[in-house]
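Dissemination and training. As part of the outreach component of the grant, students in the summer workshop were shown how a complex can be specified as a set of sequence lines and then modelled as a single object. The example used during the hands-on session is reproduced here so that future cohorts can follow it. Participants entered these lines:
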Amino acid sequence: MHRIGVDIGGTFTDFALFDAEGGRMAIHKQLTTPRDPSAAVLEGVATLLARSGVAIDDVQDIVHGTTLVTNSVIERRGAVTGMLTTEGFRDILDMGFESRYDLYDLRLRFPAPLVPRRLRAEVGERVRADGSVERKLDKDSVRAAVTRLRSKGKIEALAVCLLHSYANPAHEKAIRTLVAREFPDLYVSISSDVFPNMREFERWTTTTVNAFTQPMFDRYLKRLEDGLKGQGFAGRVYIMTSSGGTVTTETARRYPVRALESGPAAGALMSAFHGRTLGLDSVLAFDMGGTTAKGALIRGGAPLKKYMMEVARVHEFKRGSGLPVRIPVIDMIEIGSGGGSLAGVDERGLLRVGPRSASADPGPACYGRGGTGATLTDANLVLGYLDAGFFLGGTMRLDKAAAERAIRAAVAKPLSLTLARAAWGIHEVANEDVARAFRIHASERGFDYRGSSMVAFGGSGPVHAMAIARKLKIPRVVFPVGAGVMSALGLLASPLSFEVARSRRVHVEDLDAQGFAAELARLIDEASGFLKRAGTPASDIAVTLRLDMRYQGQGHDIEVTLPPSDDLAATFRALPKIFADTYAETYLVSFLDEPVEIINWKVEATGPAPVFATGYSLGEGRQGDAAAAVKGTRPVYLAEAGAYVDVPVYDRYALSPGASLAGPAIVEERESTCVIGPGDRAAVDARYNLVAELARKED
Amino acid sequence: MARNAPDSFDAVSLGILWDRLISLTDEIVSTLVRTSFSTIVSESYDLSCVVLDAEANSIAQGTMSIPVFIGSAPVTARHMLNRFPPETLKPGDVIFTNDPWLGTGHLFDVTMMRPVFRDGRIVAYTMSITHLPDIGGTGFGSAATEIYQEGLRFPIGKIADAGRIDERLIELVRANVRVPEQVVGDLMANVACNEVGGRQVLEFMDEYGIDDLGPLSRAIREQSEKAMREKIAGLKPGIYRNRIELEGLDQPIRFACRIEVKGDRIHVDFDGTGPCVRAGINVPFCYAHAMSLYSIKTLTLPSIPNNAGMTAPITVSAPVGCILNAQPPFATGGRHAMGHFVTPLIYGALAKAAPDRVQADSGMMNLVTFQGRHRNGRGVSTIYFAAGGYGALDGTDGVSTVPHPSNMAVVPVEVWETITSTTIERKNLLPDSGGAGKSRGGLGQEVVLRNDSGSPMTLLGMGNRTQFPARGLFGGGDGSLRVHALDGVPVNAKARIEMPPGARVTVREAGAGGFGDPRKRPVETVLSDVLDGFVTSKGALRDYGVKVDLRSGTAERVAAKPKAAAVHRGAKGKRA
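and obtained this result:
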């Protein structure tokens, strides 16, 4: 049986075909078709199958990751969406956090709500914090509001957002029922279903994202499923979520918001997979693409997670300048450093790289598409890290003279630097920016990365990985096979999973073991239901229980993972100690004599791990030592020497297990280039990964 | 990078080393946050960490540092080194103080400094500053009439001597504060983060082969100073004045300034500012100084990192004894309530010097303390925060409900109701509250809270802008005033209010000032504001001279001159 992973990115759609029995892998890459992304998917699947000689009815499932949902929010191309709120609270979306994310920039920008104020209406109802009803739902006010929003506002989707609906969803559900009956063509998202967490601004914003993207995503999935069926596909399509698990298309239609950032999540998940197979306990996943770099921390084989992300940042990728969304998500950093990042002079009069980007169009100066700005890719070309004749495997010729002109004009001249020093400066500043982001991210989470390994991927990741690892004192970098289609591979490694998280704020001393167990049992049923409906037998479902807890009066919660146990009463008795232990780990401080509260209850149900393995060759698998894989040499700028030095260039696809090489060296593959520094050593392991060890400092 | 880094740096190496130093201080900050008990530190980032060179020049400061900490570190460091000369210091010493006049203006902020030794000599200092959850005395607020009532005051001393914590001092703190574990925990977090910081500085020096931070420090400061001087030189030179009135205890308090922009230097003088008052709202000079630096930085080089070079071209003075140079024993606990107005004072003065950069007045934030008993029997003592509008800028409308220059984050309605057992009946924007202008001021809001706890509650307010609105610039209108009301009857926004069960408190947050002539605001923008309800049809006609037909969704400019309801003000930079 075969499985296919398909990941749609901004520029390329990536495919991976895995043969579970034969342990074979094939990959494919083709341009994304922005107008209808399903076109590239359907065409690519057909191409890949034909090339591999596999019949489509031999394919069991297709796992799909996409930036479609994210892009529709960024580009504001979603449905005309209306919103209903509790009377008196129509303006919550405009008010936001009532906070500045940058203290010095007077012109800081905030994202406009997805639903403009004129398309928000209030309905008569009120639920109290404890879930009791103060004012019954006025159904006539609902009818009147929806009628008006539809006739005057022409809305296609509706977000229903009432106060305290996480504690009592009855009114939101009643509205959903009413609208389904009387306005059947409207798409409806209710906040208690999308993510039933306390904190109205975030929950409501999340619900508007869901509503805004739902019609588009629904139509897309229909086109995709119909198209695949037309090709003879009889298996199932799964959609990757931001948390690193997959869901059925039925679930994805209901919660498109959970598919935000699903591609990057798959990349982090694949890094975790590599970490597990290589026996690495802690891993930094590092992905650098055209406009941004992304990073994730992996501990004990799993990426760190969180429940808050921002989408569509409007101000230089700054934290706080996007729409806050609460969903389970792999905890990733995003840095405005990518191949297209523009270099220039900052306010201090020093070199700066990004966050402004030349993007893919017009792209770096060396693309020869009219871009004149000096980008990171231009610098990497001038430094010899990239080969003008072997970009994307030689399918795209780079213009080195244009890169040199751009760097001279934007950097070398204004800062009185030589061309080589300017180019190296651009490269090195990007390295520093990424290293800094990792340091702060790790430090905020108490993650000790020294001794970790880095897994590097993305078009530009392998060019920068060794230098960044050196700055972070990380001794080892893994360049996995298929780094250019990492997310597509990660999709195949993702299990079916669904997480529910509900706010119910309660003092531990006010609870008893029975009430505690009952609350969790309800959530376990709800989360498992999504898997059972997808055909997973109950015995194959594993659940993870987590609680957000805090000392009363403290502003921040900490997440406590409960030990796996069938005896929830015993877990309840151990709860104070479990909390105190986690608290001490997180904050490095001793126990406080204060009452403890539970804020959020979280249950994640996970299906069995899919059959997946690495260890395939994507090349001809020629045998022989590394010397046979040398394609030639080229002058490469080495900072240690402060000069260009002739460095051997290896063909990644000609390197087989056991081959080893010493830096300085360049290892080229179709989608990327690994730069190995002087003194570093790299070897190909049994799974065809290139594993590089950094030179130890002599002193 | 090669060993023995050179004494001169190019644009590549200087940028990299500099950013690395800032990132190192950011890591010290995150250690501080993770080791702190109190929410003030971890949620509001009311803290800072600074790295200073061996001569006590600040060279890097945590990115998230709040304005009050700009420029204060080197001054505090000098005071500390006068008391404990460097040659007397030992590894493991930690010097500290919370003296308002040596630190940051009130007793709540503790400043700690630790020397960093390398091969037996001091190569740097690290410093941390945090707002403690309590310091004894009357508690956080402006209730005190003298500093002696405000809590413990520690002159410069050592909290650790050669690594040994002064246990007597800790006992003293423990016996004098309300939440001893949190306060002592936060003191220890400061000690710990400075130790971590010292290690980080040494690692940095080893990594880049730097034996002496002096040349790098000089390069960073010179580069910053140069960039700042260039920006100042780009301002229109001249002498600019401004005067504003603020609500005081019984009568208004006057702030005045005279700012001289001359070549590449700026001098701010607060001559003409009124005297101190017998309440905890007096401002020690260090705070007025920091707010001045902050204000000028936002108008010139907002993104430049804070360090001693960036502040060098800016000097500040204030007559001794005026409320912006308060002397002991005047109380200073709520010095920020007054001190924040230094920013609009300076923006108003510099309007003509930097018309494309200044911001019209903001509605500012409002803090109301609620004390009482939760329906579940537990005690309640918590602060409700709500923001007024954010001032308009040239070409940019002010954002609604965003504070300036201070910063906080709202407590969500759902969280607030859960922790207090009060009910928020409504929380909505106030149409027409933003000052009219070519760019409109940000809107204020109205919040109505009902006491459903079943017990009486006490409210302590510190509200401003109830008499003096946020003013517009260059013809822009003023924002609406702040109002506190109990069961519909307006009350003093600075008073203590008893709120019986079932009673309602209304808080109307001030709108912000507009920027530029409202007649120049495009008709379609006015129409869009009316369709979204940010401006009413009436307001559009009155303030913008635009008649809106809601039925057809069209609008036209009718009056050549709107009947101005608000007082418009030109950019005279001077005003009573």
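Chain B has 13 helices and 22 strands. Students were then asked to discuss how this feature might be tested experimentally.
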